[in-house]
Amino acid sequence: QVQVVESGGGLVQPGGSLRLSCAASISMFSIAVMGWYRQAPGKERELVATITNTGGTNYADSVKGRFTISRDNAKKMVYLQMDSLNPEDTAIYYCKVTTISARNYWGQGTQVTVSS
Hints:
about 120 residues; mainly beta; seven-stranded mixed beta sheet; four-stranded antiparallel beta sheet; 11 strands; globular
């Protein structure tokens, strides 16, 4: 019984900010690897950022310096702070949970639209 639910998406002006949240109802959240992915219309889903159980992070080159991934193990939440947004950031953003047994769980996604 695993649920992954994203929230926080919406419409934002270029240069603006949004913070996405992901709630994962998994018993061993603290040792899971969490990730944010995105998929724009007509494009393949791509990695945005990941964070390990020890707090190590990786970012796509396109978002380095603008996006920050973080986690709160007590709340079983992962966040993606997005700053300096531009239209090419427009996509559906998905949260992924990867367990120590290499099982992946995906959320349904939240739409982010950057437009003037």
